[in-house]
């Protein structure tokens, strides 16, 4: 979403080979492939408050020739989905380095990098992303794109998960950033 509230479910797959089965189900349901892209996300830490404590994020995303700066507010759970405020600004790709320098001058520091291959599909009122995340594995994200409220969004997401054969698969309420940081901390301790 470009602004407003993002409602999505993130489902962890046992192995990346499961992406093929989900892809076939999507095709069988008539879902439209909207694109395949490599996304690189750089997350920034605020100079005066800890985003990990406030459950916020500031992300600069480069993907397929586009650049976006996104603020994500704290998460709240809605059924089997998570919802959070999201504000996104598109940036001219030629200005990405200047934006990074501006954030640095304001005291923001690079916290982490998340890279993934993503396939986007449209299935009715939801967008389904098949994600291969470097260092984490494979996931399916189902995000509501309709015009209804949060309850309608949650219902639509659950229906899509059922149709894709993902019922009972583990839900992940953390961001890829949080998962990567946890993994990094556990390998440092071990």
Strand and helix layout:
Elements: E1 5-12, H1 18-28, E2 32-45, H2 51-54, E3 57-63, E4 66-72, E5 76-78, E6 81-91, H3 96-105, E7 109-123, E8 126-133, E9 137-144, H4 150-163, E10 171-172, H5 176-189
Antiparallel strand pairs: 1-6, 1-9, 1-10, 2-3, 2-7, 3-4, 4-6, 5-6, 7-8, 8-9
Fold and architecture overview:
There is one protein chain. The model has no long low-confidence stretch (mean pLDDT 91). This protein has an eight-stranded antiparallel β-barrel with strand order 1-6-4-3-2-7-8-9, surrounded by four helices. The longest helix is centred in the last third of the chain and has 14 residues, at 150-163. The protein has five helices and ten strands. Helices cover 28% and strands 44% of the residues. The chain has a single domain (5-185), classed as Hypothetical Protein Pfu-838710-001 (Beta Barrel), CATH 2.40.320.
What is the CATH class? Mainly Beta
Span between termini: 39 Å
Q: In which range does the helix fraction lie?
A: 25-40%
Which segments are poorly predicted (pLDDT under 50) over 5 or more consecutive residues?
Answer: none
**Looking at CATH, which topology would you report?**
Hypothetical Protein Pfu-838710-001
Mean pLDDT rating: 91
Q: Largest sheet, described in full? A: 8 strands, antiparallel, barrel
Rg over CA atoms, rounded to whole Å, is 17 Å
Shape: globular
Query: What's the architecture in CATH terms?
Result: Beta Barrel
Secondary-structure class: alpha+beta
For CATH, the homologous superfamily is named as Hypothetical Protein Pfu-838710-001
Spell the H/E element sequence.
EHEHEEEEHEEEHEH
Strand fraction equals 35-45%
Number of helices: 5
How many separate domains make up the residues? 1
Strand tally is 10
């Amino acid at each position: 979403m470009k602004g407003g509230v993002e409602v999505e479910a993130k489902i962890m797959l046992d192995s990346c080979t499961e992406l093929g089965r989900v892809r076939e189900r999507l095709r069988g349901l008539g879902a439209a492939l909207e694109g395949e892209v490599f996304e690189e996300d750089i997350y920034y830490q605020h100079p005066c408050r800890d985003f990990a404590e406030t459950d916020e994020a500031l992300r600069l995303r480069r993907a397929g020739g586009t650049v976006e700066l996104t603020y994500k507010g704290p998460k709240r759970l809605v059924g089997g989905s998570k919802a959070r405020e999201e504000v996104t600004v598109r940036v001219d790709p030629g200005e990405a380095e200047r934006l990074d320098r501006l954030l640095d001058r304001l005291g923001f520091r690079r916290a982490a990098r998340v890279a993934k291959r993503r396939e986007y599909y449209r299935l009715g009122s939801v967008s389904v992303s098949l994600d291969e995340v470097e260092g984490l594995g494979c996931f399916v994200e189902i995000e509501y794109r309709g015009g209804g409220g949060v309850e309608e969004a949650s219902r639509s997401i659950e229906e899509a998960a059922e149709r894709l054969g993902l019922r009972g698969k583990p839900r992940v309420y953390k961001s890829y950033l949080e998962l990567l940081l946890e993994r990094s901390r556990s390998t440092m301790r071990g």
